[in-house]
Specification:
Two copies of one chain form a homodimer. Chain A is an alpha/beta fold. Chain A has one domain: TIM Barrel. Helices cover 48% and strands 12% of the residues of chain A. Chain A is built from 15 helices and nine strands. In chain A, the strands form two sheets. A seven-stranded parallel sheet of chain A has the order 1-4-5-6-7-8-9. Chain A has a two-stranded antiparallel ribbon with strand order 2-3. In chain A, a hairpin with a 3-residue loop joins strand 2 and strand 3. In chain A, helix 9 packs across helix 10, helix 10 runs parallel beside helix 11 and helix 14 runs parallel beside helix 15. Chain A is globular. Chains A and B meet through helix 9 of A and helix 9 of B.
């Protein structure tokens, strides 16, 4: 097996830097859009054969060094008792605003109620035949709780802030339920065959350091510890969180994902020797000419020299409309094939 | 005149910390919504009597220590040759993508072609009767250029990045034209009576430090220098720019606006003694109970003690739906009236 990714996660020596990119199975790929012409997003997530098919598309096309389960960070919210629709961003029925709302949050057995997730993982492990490792994922607790409180994606996320500032006890109770569900959800992914877990803390960057310590880091760390107990590495990715790097240094994961805002080596310095890092090309760079993509990829590789472990990735998910030839150029530059 | 604001800008001693809030004349105010029921946003910006009326609303209601011209950061784009519509965010006709597009950017005399801006300022100076100072404003050059390249507000702003990475020469030519227009636009605001200028670099936070130095800071600094040449203080506000603080320390303004992500004293430390700071309450805090608003306002005032100058403000603009009683509680807490 190509285990460069897993070795980099564990800060073991690698012959070359492994690369995968967030949302690598997505709308920028013509073969993905072809599948989406036939089924809507939720149906795609819930149909294991199709979810596995789109997961493999970027592996087949580009030769990335890791595959990531095709799913959505809100998949877990349905069995918790919420209805999710897409319009086009996610909209959650009856968001959590009060202590009584938290009592509505159902405990559930993820293998019973989200069987399609685990079936997709099993299919993928079979079809990957050991070509590259498979990453499972979930939202970190604060980010899931933020969606449940807000009821939709939003630039400001007033409701989660209102909850943590106005009723911290209820916020903590919500976070505890979300954390317990997320632990069960991801450890079952590992049992089904996921070889690493990525936790997305997409909204952590909206918090101050103090808020993050109390309502973000603490719960993320519980999920991270639970996954590490199963023996697979964990990648923790907080978006737009340059100001939280000193706190993130306490998250206990194997790898920390970094956006492009701060130089890779600078952030790695704040995290310390304990962590491998993942990142951090600005996804907008992929819209620039191929030679710019190649140059910027090389600069990141240079900055990463001497770090304990580095997995090449983008600083955010790849954007719709990204030219596939530029992704190809990126992979070639990182894998040293040109 | 209540000149607390101007003295704080100049790092002179003040009896108490002055306060105003970004977008203080806005949708959260019932009297503003009342005006907007009669006229659309663009008409409001272009009708001096009405623009002056809404500018004064928050001064009359809350007793803020500064008024800010009611206008839009894209007002300047129309005489440059672009059509602006709102849907509900701004949409710009025929965005700038090529060298030929830059040649279309018109030079213009702002006092001739945007007379309503200057008339609003003259009305306001008369009607304020010296109660509080009047702030004029504009977008910083990178932010205006980013809008002109993208053609609309967007979360990713692919087009400005594509331009600066793929065709830096054209990007620089666009920035030079934008900078020259902005200089004329704001220095004429000072001649009409604006007593300070705020430059909004709303999209600077999307840049890496290197990109910012080359395409953001350099041009912002030119406008700042031009305004300072007229003798009035300049406030420079880059949004979501914690990672750029060391660069912003070279912007040369009188005041730097800070968002809530980093503690006020920490950012001020990076800026150095040369700068007064403005900020930095998270606008979401205003949705929490009034006692939380008061407590957080006091914490910011404590953190600001010993800084060379401090103007209380939010870290972003006040959000639609913000309870007016909480704004009232904030102003009382800062002005020491409770």
């Amino acid at each position: 097996m190509n285990d460069l990714f897993l070795r980099a996660c564990r800060r073991e020596p690698v012959e070359r830097t492994p690369i995968w990119i967030m949302r690598q199975a997505g709308r920028y790929l013509p073969e993905y859009r072809e599948v989406r012409r036939r089924v809507d997003f939720l149906t795609l997530c819930k149909t294991p054969e199709l979810a596995a098919e789109v997961t493999l598309q970027p592996i087949d096309r580009f030769g990335f060094d890791a595959a990531i389960l095709f799913s959505d960070i809100l998949t877990i919210a349905e069995p918790m008792g919420f209805e999710i629709t897409f319009n086009p961003g996610p909209v959650i029925s009856a968001p959590v605003r009060t202590a009584a709302d938290v009592e509505r949050v159902r405990e559930f057995d993820p293998e019973q109620e989200l069987p399609f997730v685990y079936e997709t993982i099993r299919i993928l492990r079979r079809e990957l035949e050991g070509r590259v490792p498979l990453i499972g994922f979930a939202a970190a607790p604060f980010t899931l709780a933020a969606y449940l409180a807000e009821g939709a994606g939003s630039r400001n996320f007033v409701e989660p802030k209102r909850l943590i500032l106005g009723d911290p006890t209820t916020a903590r109770r919500l976070l505890e339920r979300v954390t317990a569900a997320t632990e069960r959800y991801v450890t079952a992914q590992v049992r089904a065959g996921a070889q690493a877990i990525q936790l997305f803390d997409t909204w952590a960057g909206l918090l101050t350091a103090r808020e993050y310590r109390e309502f973000g880091l603490r719960y993320a760390r519980q999920v991270i510890d639970a996954v590490r107990g199963t023996g697979v590495p964990v990648i923790y990715v907080a978006r737009d969180a340059t100001h939280l790097m000193n706190e993130i240094a306490g998250c206990g994961s194997d790898v920390v994902g970094l956006d492009w805002r701060a130089p890779l080596d600078e952030s790695a310095g704040k995290l310390g020797e304990r962590y491998a890092v993942q990142g951090n090309l600005d996804p907008c760079v992929l819209f620039a000419p191929a030679e710019v993509v190649t140059r910027q990829a090389r600069e990141i590789l240079e900055r990463a020299q001497g770090l304990p472990g580095h997995i090449f990735n983008l600083g955010h998910g790849v954007l719709p409309g990204t030219p596939v030839e530029h992704v190809e150029a990126l992979v070639r530059a990182v894998q040293g094939r040109n």
